[in-house]
Amino acid sequence: MTDEFLEKRYEETFDLTYETILRRKKEEEGFTIDKLESLLETEYLVADSGWAGGKSDIKEAENNAVIAAFERALIEWREENQKK
User: Considering the entire predicted model, what is its pTM?
Assistant: First the structure.
């Protein structure tokens, strides 16, 4: 497996996850910043436990991308809340 493949998988996973978060934030009343924080905590646990498919390079890239997307969305959401 090449680094290029893993980088592409990371980018695709990040983009899809980030777009999904933004859509859920806009369309789902029950999707709150607290819910996103909870999901992020779960992803941290998955990453730390090796439960993400045995820590294959692909699963690790995907998990890292999901965490990064969640973190980015949380930072942006908090910044929006501070401006209000």
Answer: 0.89
Alpha-helical runs (H) found in 1-84? 3-27, 33-49, 57-83
C-alpha distances (whole Å) from 5 to each of 8, 18, 19, 74, 81 are 5, 20, 21, 27, 37
* Percent of the chain clearing pLDDT 70 (strictly above): 94
| Region of 53 on the Ramachandran plot (φ > 0 left; ψ -120 to 50 alpha; else beta) | left
CA 27, 30, 36, 41 dihedral sign is: negative
Q: How many CA atoms lie within 13 A of 58 on its CB side?
A: 4
